Amino acid sequence: MRKNYANKCVFLTLTDYFRITGRMTQKLHRQQQVFINDVSVDCVMFGFHDYQLKVLLLKWPGANAWSLPRGPVRRTEVIMDAAVGMLHTTTGLDDVFVQQFQTFSRPSDRWTETSKNEFSATANPHLAASLIAVGFYALVDFERVRPRVQGTFQWSEIADLPDLLFDHHDLIESALLALRKDLRYLPIAKLLPSKFTLREMQKLYETILNRAFDRRNFHKLLMSYDFLTKLPEKKTGSQNKSPHLYTIDFDKYESALQDGISY
Amino acid sequence: MRKNYANKCVFLTLTDYFRITGRMTQKLHRQQQVFINDVSVDCVMFGFHDYQLKVLLLKWPGANAWSLPRGPVRRTEVIMDAAVGMLHTTTGLDDVFVQQFQTFSRPSDRWTETSKNEFSATANPHLAASLIAVGFYALVDFERVRPRVQGTFQWSEIADLPDLLFDHHDLIESALLALRKDLRYLPIAKLLPSKFTLREMQKLYETILNRAFDRRNFHKLLMSYDFLTKLPEKKTGSQNKSPHLYTIDFDKYESALQDGISY
Lengths: 263, 263
Known about the structure:
The structure is a homodimer.
Chain A: H1 2-5, E1 9-13, H2 14-34, E2 35-49, E3 52-59, E4 70-74, H3 79-91, E5 97-105, H4 113-120, E6 132-139, E7 152-157, H5 168-181, H6 198-209, H7 215-224, E8 228-234, E9 244-248, H8 250-259
Parallel strand pairs in A: 2-6
Antiparallel strand pairs in A: 2-3, 2-4, 3-7, 5-6, 8-9
């Protein structure tokens, strides 16, 4: 076949020539040079509010369903940096506890028609479907989050999630399992506001572990560590008598976590 | 600029034209259609032999250094299948315990000259450098491994590894940490031959955890679970008196692992 072409010519205007090769080069360039093609970081951001464990969801401009915050990975950066950067732009925070927990794959032949149609066409890298999602979870102080990206945000209770894009339901479920497994070594107090009641801390453990603790025993346990400081202030506006507020000494907390906090 | 090209022409033989566009198309095709570009599965295969925890290393034909077994991921497969398939071709086994533990990144600007030179040119997908490595570890019965791929193999003691390609030293270290963390839920008896002595099992735990157990207490602990079956046979060729051989009831073992085996 090749041989037959040898003596034949093609006349192209330079415009055409550059259009054809340029488009290909662009595609190669786009794929190769800036981002790692087919890979994204997807993040389950846990927050705690009203005695409920919640997850931050967003709806990108142009999308018609909710999803977890996610972003591309540059070829020149470490995955963790991509996750931290994405968290920063999403929440406005830069002192967030982030943990890689599992990597998910979405084989191309299993994509649903929805995600195919919705995402293959768009130029927004946050919306592009990816074959590989490196899953991170983050512990976020609910009250301090100030999103810095365009889109609609909501905190959703884990027990009551809306329909999500991609495999983001699986991601949330796996993140919760990982959180439970790692609980004794995790700084989950980062989910609490800077001043909190012991009841709030107990509720946090109970919510994550999905079980109840005896109040007295749990408080005794907490106070057996020295990282909690009782404040003179009391919480106002509670239904019952005003409980004391506590704060955490993060240096002592970190060293207690080294050995693991039992509950 | 574009405007000036409009009236100018380029004369290409069809051969040239196809050579130029074809090469680009091929490159796009190779990148997009079969494998997920820039992603590999890299596997730390643990084996236990001579009271030592060992790792399977291989030297691919054409490579001049050792590395962990690794392979590409097809765009149509789940990562776990890629890992299991690679394990199967590497060891000849298909009932291996495999666990994803962490995903590593190797930003393109941090590649060492060695790995760049060695791997960018080759067509062997096992040798191609990848920006993202999804790390798995596997528990492998040392005695049953029969490699099915070309290359040189060796079991290397963890304390005495040779120089390795890529970030494979980091991978092994992280895999060992993950193994320790998950120990109580892991079927690590899969590292033992089908018949083993209690001393071998104790040594296995000691090696992984890098600490010593009291023999009597450890044996008492093991026998408190009902998954071990004492065989009439004894191990011959031991230095001391011949110890009894044991075998494992994997159904009972699996259910004991659900709750975690404490040590």
